Structure formats: structure tokens, C-alpha cells
Prior knowledge:
By secondary structure, the protein is α+β, with helices and mostly antiparallel strands. About 20% of the residues lie in helices and about 30% in strands. It folds into two domains: about 1-170, no CATH class; about 190-335, Porin. Helix 4 (about 90-95) runs parallel beside helix 6 (about 145-155).
Amino acid sequence: MMTQFCNICCFIFIFINVFQISPSHADNAVPVLLWGGSINSDLTSAVNPFLKSTSEEFDLFLRKTLENSPPVLLYIKDNLCIEDLVKHKQHLQKVISSDSLRYFPAVEKAVNTIEDLPSYNQTYNDYVDSISDGQLLIVPISNLDVIPETYKTIKDSSPNLIAILTGKACSYRRSERIKRDTYVNNTTEPFIVASDRVLFYASKPLLLKLGNNTEIELPLKPTVSDDSGKTPLSCKLSMKFNIPNSISLAFMFEVETPGYYTLKTVNYQFSDATVNEKNLTTNTTIVFPFNFSYHCSQNIIFENSSTILNITNLQVQLYTKLAKDGEKVFSDAYDCIGFTTIPIWAGIFVTAILALIMIWALTMIIDIRTMDRFDDPKGKTITISAQE
């Protein structure tokens, strides 16, 4: 049995070391040591150190172990962790080296589970010499070193005694291995629309949020058409979705500056009713030159007081004339994030300050003048006028 206890101690050490490198969180699970009496061999199987025993599992084990209602001595410590068992292993070895041993690394609500055993009469007394069958003696302790003396005293008069050591809580930071969720690739197909004059792309389906907190993910394949806008070069891209009510979106591409397209407004219409027609606007500046595409990895939001249209990773291009037969592809992108971003400007500003300091320092060093005249002790004293 000495070998079994040594294996348990090694098991506890491995349990601590492994858990120190795993994700940590606090809970009310405490270790449980159970020894003495006669425990069936089928109940002494190894415990997985990476799993926590629930109160239901521990209750099932107790009912099988205590089915003959042997006397039970329960030691309860207010604060008990695995580190305490390792620290006092020499004292515990004196009483459990020759008896059957069962170890649970972490049990939920262990004290409550033991106290709720229906076939036992509970007794709270620190000075008891013997325990009869069907009796549960609960002994609160503050130090594990007192266990050997009290256990041996009661064991001599109650040979079938089963002792249990546990705690009410663990104030240390308990660590346990947490089962990670399996990664599921939830990527959806991109939203791609190609009309005669417009090529439109979004990495996710368009998301429409209505005023009643309803979110509608628009289908990937709408009915598409394009028409001329206010000028021959401007364009109106219309998309019609049937989900099952009819929803129409019209993207208004205008030429406000010669050579540049501008997208500010999306016309939204619900159920083919003119009364439900709304104009959605955006705060993002969407301006791009002819023969270039526009790209923005940030979410583009078109909205009014009650409706929001969310577009993820937008890229769009217009053709100044009807595209030739064949596959349409995007030209070079005119990105919404400019070339000189905030980090670049910060770097230029800091570099400019350092350059000015270096120039000032070099100027001061160059301006230093050394003496070019020295007194001759045998000659006439050097006289320097104020002009010099």
C-alpha cells in the first residue's frame, strides 16, 4: 500500500504541474481523499486528472462504496487544495499507507454531497472514541497534522471505519483543463453581382437591419439591372430580392467631380410600395476615379433613422461604356484607407522633430571657435580689442 500512496502523491504533483500551464478559472471544486474499510476493486479505477467530478458522480460513488452503511469519519477543512495535500503528505502517509485509498482531484460540492447521505445519522463531536455502523462523524479541522492521532483512536474500536478528507472551498486559484470547442468554418459565399456596367463584390451577404430590431440577410443572387442616372456617365444599380417579401436596393453612382464616381445614397424599397421607399446614406466617403475600382475592408453602413444596410469588405467598379464579352475583373483598387495613414504621419512627425534637434546640435558644434592666440611669457601681452 506504500507504493499506492506514493503513486497518488506523484499523481498529485503531476496534476499541479500540468494545471499550472493550462487556462485557469476559479470554482468551488475541492480534492477528496477516501480511505479505510474495504473498497471494491471495480471502484478504484484511475481518475482522469483533467476532468472535474460532478456532485452527482461523487454521490453515485459514495452510495456504492457505503452500501453496507459502515461508520464514516469526515474531516472538513475550511480551505483545502491539492497543494495542502502535497505539503502534509508525510503526516497523511502515517494513516493511509496500509489501507485502501481513493483520490478525487476536484469534486463539486463535496461536503454537501456527503452530508446529504440519507442512511446516515450525523454527529458533530471532536472527542469520540468509537463510531457505530450507519453513523457519520463530522470533525472540523484547521490543520491536517491532527488527522493521524484522531483517526488511529477511532480506528482501533471501529475496524470498518472509512475516513474522508475534504474541504468547503479552495481559496487558491484552481486550474483545470477546459475542453475547447471544435473550430467550425462558418465562412459563407461572397456576394457578387455583375451587370452590364457594374461589378459589385462583398465578402459576406448584405445585411439589412430594420427598425424593429429585425436583421435580414439578403440572398446571394438577386435580380440585377442598371440604368443611366442624372448624367450619361452616372449609373443606377438596382437589386431586387424576394425573401419572401420584395426588397429592392438601388445604388446611385453619380459623377460630381469630373473623372470620379461618387456613391452616397442607396434607395431602399420594401414590398414594391412607393410609400415604403427610403434613401439610405453613408458617412464614408466613397469616391474613386474612372477605370479604377473602389475597395474598403471596413464595414460600409448606409442608414437612415430606422433602416441600416451593412456591407462587409466592399469592392465595386463601373465601366464608362458597356463591357466587352468575357469575364469582368476588377482594375487597380482605390482604397478607402489613404496612403498616408495615422501611423505614417506619426512617424514623419517624430522623425522631423529628431531631424530638427540634430540640425540644431550640429549647428552649435560647428559654431564653436577655438583659441588661435596664446601668451608668450617672454613677449608682450596679447591685447584683444572689443571689435575682435
